[in-house]
Specification:
The protein has about 170 residues and is an alpha+beta fold. It has two domains: about 100 residues, no CATH class; about 55 residues, no CATH class. It is built from six helices and five strands. Strands 1-5-4-3-2 form a five-stranded antiparallel beta sheet, with no helix packed on it. A hairpin with a 2-residue loop joins strand 2 and strand 3. The radius of gyration is 25 Å and the shape is elongated. The protein starts with 8 loop residues before the first helix and ends with a helix.
Length: about 170
């Protein structure tokens, strides 16, 4: 039995869970939307066509050109007068200018995705790491939402177990 005025661990975990949840709601929405968009990155979902012109080094070889343009498996369809033609564009070997069309997301979604895909070299990596830790805290602190001997706690444990099993199945498939 609790003494009056002394707060239990459950009380503190519930309060922290609530406050952290409210604090990270904006980032959670951004990560959710960008995650959904990234699932369909191999399609033209929400994309529009944009013409891109880049000044590169002259006389580049095809593999290096593909790497610089971020086009995987770049295949040249024809070469004519120092100009290499590839799907949706061309590269002038003399001037180094590459012109091609690309399907791109709207700029705000590109910003969402860059936040979602940040690496340790990114200036925001610490922020995204803290976000991941806060999400982990929310997952773990949810076990303190109900008293251990209650029906709701047992139901939560069953659902958590089912979620873990489904996650493992998805990793194995």
């Amino acid at each position: 039995m609790e003494q009056k005025g002394k707060k239990s661990l459950n009380h503190y975990m519930r309060s922290l869970h609530r406050d952290v949840g409210f604090f990270i709601i904006g980032l959670t929405i951004i990560y959710s939307v960008s995650g959904i968009v990234l699932i369909y990155r191999d399609t033209n979902f929400l994309k529009h066509e944009a013409v891109v012109e880049k000044k590169l080094s002259p006389n580049m070889e095809v593999p290096e050109l593909g790497s610089m343009l971020h086009i995987r498996d770049l295949k040249v369809s024809k070469s004519e007068g120092g100009i290499l033609y590839f799907q949706n564009g061309n590269y002038n070997k003399v001037t180094g200018v590459a012109t091609y069309s690309s399907n791109e997301l709207p700029s705000f979604l590109n910003k969402f995705n860059s936040l979602h895909k940040s690496s340790s070299k990114s200036s925001i990596h610490l922020f995204t790491t803290i976000f991941g830790i806060l999400l982990l805290f929310l997952a773990i602190s949810s076990f303190w939402m109900f008293k251990a001997n209650s029906k709701l706690f047992r139901r939560g444990m069953i659902l958590a177990g089912a979620g873990i099993v489904v996650s493992i199945i998805l990793l194995v498939i």
